[in-house]
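Thread: quick sanity check before group meeting

JM: Hey all, I'm pulling together slides for Thursday and realized we never actually wrote out the predicted structure for the chain we discussed last week. Dropping the sequence here so it's in one place. If anyone has concerns about the input, flag it before I start.
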Amino acid sequence: MSTQPRPSARLVLASASWGRKKVLTDAGLEFTTQVSAVDEDAVLARAVAQHGEQSPAQTAQLLARAKAEEVASGQHPAGTLVLGCDSVFELDGAAYGKPHTEQVARERWQQLSGATGVLHSGHWLIDTQQPEEPVGKVSSAVVHFSTVSDAEIEAYVASGEPLPCAGAFTIDGLAASFIESIEGNFQNVVGLDVFVLRKLLAELGVGIVDLWK
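JM (edit): ok, ran it. Output follows.
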């Protein structure tokens, strides 16, 4: 057995999400970001072809894993840990990702008004020195939406906020006023659950305090 001490942990977030960056920053964690070049549609299509339809939770974990693996495959200093995350919103059993266009966002909010859905966030953590032993977990939270008027929907869509967000909303932005309550961890709805991250780090023998600034 090697007696060499473990290199200092270095966290890389494989995501461009402002919300996820803020979660890590607010938790006092030191990290850098490296956005993956994963083709999400292609990854999902391959999974469906090989294993059949994926549930919303499975889709979130599948894409989180793909992002982490793509970034981890590059060159990194010893001690680097790569975290991939992805969020998928589930409404009436159907999976909803980013709407991208105003028309799709408008249609989504007509469905969300007065409804209840589930936001699934996949987490996948890879130690680049031992990439064959990754760890992952999906965290889910139930989201209850208030009834939203057509005028409010139009104003929200026009803001541009929902276009790059899973489910066409973000709880830490303008849509907060349309959300009555949640069941689960608030951070999970943002897209990265620090409690889950702490558990995953522990599985790899790293304490979250080792990442504090």
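AS: nice. The first helix runs from residue 18 to 26. The chain has a mean pLDDT of 94.
JM: adding both to the slides.
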